[in-house]
């Protein structure tokens, strides 16, 4: 039997593979894309890693873009509509965003440099039995090629059956940095959100603008605009949405320089949030563990998907190191160790998607706009979704937190 | 609302109460016995605390009987019948046994000295609503007065509906210490076990002999003998069981000095192992958390009950300190944090009770008798029942462990 087999070369598969290789466990990573394909093509996502994720990168020896140089320390908030609030919160330790077309191939090279095997091959559900005969444990770390369907959907943790936002993420020049530099979370109540992220990409420092459009809301049309058919019309539409709904970003736009960095630096789509069971049993009785998108798909509105996948990979990896008996007891341990963090990530994200926002979230936002200390806790908790959910899980919890803070 | 209310002044209630008081949380402990009653009367049990429990006592500042002075470092094993094995394993760090009639009142004084409130009052199920109105959180840390029945029995983790052993624990003089001093676990296959524990009691250093008799087995009669009716006959019966079934203890008996230290230093009975749900919701919607015997009752055959109760109290206490929002999310966290350890304690204990023993346990015992390193892992794992269960949960796990060790 040849060690651990991991399907999927995203952040989950790579962080797990690297952790295991750093501990001399044989690992084969199955990727349906070559390193060259991962390093080119259309923008796959716009992802920030928070300090708890960066700490894992440091532990793995893969901190190729230091947060001190490439990172930022704050989240700026703008809330439109009747609330009209503007405030800033500190992350506590810097976060950092690097284009995944640079990040993933670099970590894949770290993985093969560390003795990990790379097999360029698309894995479908019907291939898992063969993999289970080859490897001591099979991990599915991608939802592609129908692999998400291998794991049962957990209905109690998956309230939605359709996308709650339509997504449009692109890389732009011509947006001056906020002061101090940081992410801007801009909420247009009822219509959606914009997440602006300072990102390192092929062109150097660029600005990711990630629009989250409520279906039927004022900027849904943006997501459905075909950029390549009429680039100028698309650019105008982006500028109009910024001007009308996201003034705290628009005020930093230099119109003469504003535009997509490349026509491939744009991705449009939609996802349905979903929590799957932690593992599945194959017909031969062997368990297959779900990781990353095969386990939890969350809307990007608070940017937690990759951070959650990395956390989950770490818990799985530590359990492999401590208890290499790949049976149901093993799978139950993995489930227990990551459950609170993964469910809290999903529950918090789903709360942020509610239209209209629940009353206690509005109370929290109002308090953040008045008290920097409250905004700092909320912002720092982007590192700790479980602690965020401790505050936001119920109106009673939010009020108890705000009363402790005042 | 007056802080935390805890029903039950056993090790679970006391360790929890002390942890909370060390962090300035108001606590009221409800005990149906006065400190004087806890400190006198019939022997309540014969309990050894392992190093992981002693570490909690050190953290609480209640190490009144240091393991260096009162403790021991090894477990001696004797297995009769066809296996005929004799071997010793190291605990890694010393364990220690003190008579609970000294231990509990002393910790109760520590608790009240630390500002904890003591209310001498028997709590019954119908009192819990009143308590829930008085306290922010109510913890039930005793199964007495019908309180165990407040929490639903978890059938999947409670395989037995009747006692698997009849118990007879007493304190004796006239048993010379083993070399080196330690606990002896003596197994008479098919008939039961004897656990011999060096214990500190009112008379100083004494020997606890804890007979576990299989119903219908060769020493069931001992448990049913009325000691007070004919002390000499009882003593003779103990000596005969030692001679016939537990030679590694019997060889250290000095007949002229052998006998019970006091007629109250004997307890006979039987318990049905049971795992209960972690919490119950009262009619008013308030949760009540189960701890100690209200949560998990395990047979004493591997002496884990009190250690498990202390572990569980610690997890509950840490959760109270970190997230003082006493709702179902809180209860779910407590459940998740202690589940693996509590279930592993129960599953391991239940495995040790099986008659005849399962094949893989016999393989483990044989390996221990041949390899000191294997015996040391097994013995050290009295501190870590979850790790013990990692080895013993399935035949495949035991064989994988033994193959790694050889």
TrEMBL record, chains A, B:
Any one GO molecular function term: ligase activity
Protein name: Alanine-phosphoribitol ligase
Keywords of the record: Ligase
Record InterPro entries: FAD/NAD-bd_sf, StyA_sbd
Record has Ligase as a keyword: yes
Phylogenetic placement of the source organism: Bacteria, Bacillati, Actinomycetota, Actinomycetes, Pseudonocardiales
Residue ranges annotated for the Styrene monooxygenase StyA putative substrate binding domain, each copy included: 143-252
């Amino acid at each position: 039997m040849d060690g651990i087999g991991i399907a999927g070369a995203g952040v989950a598969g790579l962080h797990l593979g690297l952790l295991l290789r750093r501990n001399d466990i044989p690992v084969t990573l199955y990727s349906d894309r070559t390193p060259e394909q991962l390093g080119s093509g259309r923008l796959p996502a716009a992802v920030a890693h928070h300090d708890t994720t960066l700490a894992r990168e440091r532990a793995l020896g893969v901190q190729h873009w230091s947060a001190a140089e490439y990172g930022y320390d704050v989240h700026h908030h703008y809330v439109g509509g009747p609330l009209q609030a503007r405030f800033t919160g500190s992350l506590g330790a810097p976060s950092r965003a690097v284009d995944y077309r640079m990040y993933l191939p670099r970590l894949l090279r770290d993985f093969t440099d560390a003795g990990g095997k790379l097999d360029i091959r698309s894995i479908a559900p019907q291939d898992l039995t063969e993999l289970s005969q080859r490897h001591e444990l099979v991990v599915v770390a991608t939802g592609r090629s129908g692999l998400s369907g291998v794991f049962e959907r957990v209905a109690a943790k998956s309230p939605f059956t359709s996308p709650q936002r339509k997504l449009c993420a692109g890389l732009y020049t011509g947006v001056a940095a906020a002061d101090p530099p940081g992410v801007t979370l801009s909420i247009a109540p009822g219509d959606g959100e914009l997440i602006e992220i300072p990102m390192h990409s092929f062109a150097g420092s660029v600005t990711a603008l990630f629009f989250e459009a409520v279906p039927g809301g004022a900027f849904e049309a943006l997501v459905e605009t075909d950029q390549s058919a009429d680039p100028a019309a698309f650019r105008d539409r982006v500028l109009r949405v910024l001007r009308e709904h996201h003034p705290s970003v628009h005020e930093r736009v230099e119109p003469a320089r504003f535009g997509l960095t490349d026509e491939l630096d744009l991705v449009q789509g939609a996802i349905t949030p979903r929590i799957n069971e932690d593992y599945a049993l194959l017909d031969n009785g062997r368990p297959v563990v779900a990781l990353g998108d095969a386990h939890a798909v969350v809307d990007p509105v608070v940017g937690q998907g990759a951070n959650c996948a990395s956390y989950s990979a770490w818990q799985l990896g530590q359990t492999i190191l401590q208890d290499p008996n790949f049976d149901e007891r093993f799978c139950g341990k993995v489930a227990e160790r990551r459950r609170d963090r993964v469910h809290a990530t999903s529950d918090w994200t789903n709360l942020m998607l509610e239209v209209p926002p629940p009353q206690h979230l509005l109370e929290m936002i109002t308090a953040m706009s008045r008290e920097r200390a409250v905004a700092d806790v909320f912002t720092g908790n982007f590192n700790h979704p479980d602690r965020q959910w401790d505050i936001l899980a119920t109106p009673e919890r939010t009020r108890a937190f705000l009363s402790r803070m005042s």
